[in-house]
UniProtKB/TrEMBL annotation:
Domain of life, per lineage: Bacteria
Organism: Paracoccus benzoatiresistens
UniProt lineage: Bacteria, Pseudomonadati, Pseudomonadota, Alphaproteobacteria, Rhodobacterales
Enzyme class label: oxidoreductase
Coiled coil: none
Domain named Quinate/shikimate 5-dehydrogenase/glutamyl-tRNA reductase: residues: 123-196
Keywords for this protein: Amino-acid biosynthesis, Aromatic amino acid biosynthesis, NADP, Oxidoreductase
Domain Shikimate dehydrogenase substrate binding N-terminal: 11-94
Recorded metabolic or biological pathway in which this protein acts: Metabolic intermediate biosynthesis; chorismate biosynthesis; chorismate from D-erythrose 4-phosphate and phosphoenolpyruvate: step 4/7
This protein's name: shikimate dehydrogenase (NADP(+))
UniProt catalytic activity: shikimate + NADP(+) = 3-dehydroshikimate + NADPH + H(+)
E.C. number: 1.1.1.25
PANTHER family xref list: BIFUNCTIONAL 3-DEHYDROQUINATE DEHYDRATASE_SHIKIMATE DEHYDROGENASE, CHLOROPLASTIC (PTHR21089:SF1), SHIKIMATE DEHYDROGENASE (PTHR21089)
Pfam families per record: Shikimate_DH, Shikimate_dh_N
Amino acid sequence: MITGHTRLYCIIANPISHVKTPEEMNNLFASVGHDGVLVPFHVLPQNLSQFINMLRGLENLGGLIVTVPHKTDVLALCDDTVGDAAAIGAVNAIRRDPDGRLIGAMLDGKGFVSGLGVNGIDVAGMDVCLLGAGGAGAAIAFALAEAGVAHLTIVNRSQDKARDLAERVLAKYPSIRIAPGAPETARRDLIVNATSLGLRADDALPLSDLAFHRNQIVAEAIMEPEVTPLLAAARAAGARIHFGRPMLRQQIRLMARHMGVTSVPDA
């Protein structure tokens, strides 16, 4: 039941019809007894600045979730950021403080690592291959570094983009070995697909080196389909596979806490 006491939250995207977050977040609010509701808003890029500035005056707004294509552009519209958002160059959750200030965070990567953790996978000390250096890839790279991986190889079509990401992560986490390179699938403890390849049935695989084996983990950031062609190939070779859905579920918890919902336990 929505009343005058209900705390409001929103998610913005372009387009908006595909997003799964409202169902997940509203289920979470109900489960912890929080009087709040998350609603979707379809915001075009040319209207982003006007929309964000309007939110500063909404006294009953707790915050907003940001998804494609706004994660990069919204960074400059925040008053401050927490964690690695500034270094990553993107924001996907914003808290509205009582004074109207907007505080951004980037939780894609933390949600991914937390999703691994709840399934008993500790990445500390692992040799990891990360496929993709885009927005999701950058967030996951920083989160893997923060979690203590020993070695991180970034595989991307643009070597310059992979090198730039490696340099930014290394500047914040100088103790890890990180560089652009080739998958070298057989030697990895963990392979992560942070590209969009696998969303469509006719997509190519995100790597051609398919030397998967039973002593490694292959993980997806893609949620639908649940079993992507990459995961199917890895499972057929005996590797342990990790689906994309835990990333969303853990990220939802982190987003809610960032937006001030203290009744949600730590992820």
